Amino acid sequence: DQQVKQNSPSLSVQEGRISILNCDYTNSMFDYFLWYKKYPAEGPTFLISISSIKDKNEDGRFTVFLNKSAKHLSLHIVPSQPGDSAVYFCAARGNSGNTPLVFGKGTRLSVIA
Amino acid sequence: DTAVSQTPKYLVTQMGNDKSIKCEQNLGHDTMYWYKQDSKKFLKIMFSYNNKELIINETVPNRFSPKSPDKAHLNLHINSLELGDSAVYFCASSWTGNIGNSPLHFGNGTRLTVT
What we know:
The complex is a heterodimer of chains A (113) and B (115). Chain A is mainly beta and 113 residues long. Chain A is built from no helices and 11 strands. Chain A has strands at residues 4-5, 10-14, 19-25, 32-38, 45-51, 56-59, 62-67, 72-77, 86-93, 102-103, 107-112. In chain A, the strands form 2 sheets. In chain A, strands 2, 4, 5, 9, 10 and 11 form a 6-stranded mixed β-sheet that branches. Chain A has a 5-stranded antiparallel β-sheet with strand order 1-3-8-7-6, with no helix packed on it. The relative contact order of chain A is 0.34. The mean pLDDT of chain A is 94. Chain B has 115 residues and is mostly beta strands. Chain B contains no helices and 11 strands. In chain B, strands 2, 4, 5, 6, 9, 10 and 11 form a 7-stranded mixed β-sheet that branches. Chain B has a 4-stranded antiparallel β-sheet with strand order 1-3-8-7, with no helix packed on it. In chain B, a hairpin with a 2-residue loop joins strand 5 (43-50) and strand 6. Chain B starts with a strand and ends with a strand. The model of chain B has no long low-confidence stretch (mean pLDDT 90). Classes of the chains: A mainly beta (113), B mainly beta (115). Chains A and B meet through strand 4, strand 5 and strand 10 of A and strand 4, strand 5 and strand 10 of B.
């Protein structure tokens, strides 16, 4: 019973183009959504987040969009750069107490020069 | 000056042995976690400690025992290791002052291989 789903295990994009990574969730109690980036042999690093009261959050080349009615979020990277090649994890949590961060399985992004 | 550091990075051991993984954070966070990434690449919460108190204890065998001597450290001890324990274990920390949006900071992981 995956509560956070990333249905695309991998994605290849040309340098300079847009990368769109998708994430679906099933738990309507989730209030915060985060994206993490992971390089091989390193831990995940926080990238960007969004609260359920918003539908968009932008930070430089990274934008996260949230569609609460569809229980769907996406991460847009524009323009994509070779250094963006990594595994991207979508994560979500509720807003009560110490609710744990629940992760998706990750999408491996390859940006081709 | 690594924010979240865990040791060792690699651990190869035989079935039945007991091993420990150490974690330290210098971010001043009040909550620490252990996550397990299995062969299917899922990152799953195992334990969470807030100010040395156990907060979350997911369905994890009793062979796994976390210990938090202070809020900057959370160690993981595993007894009677089994083949299925082979995975990458990540330590993480966060500040729960801003509960929902406080990102976790992860260590670089410990790859445990049980033979």
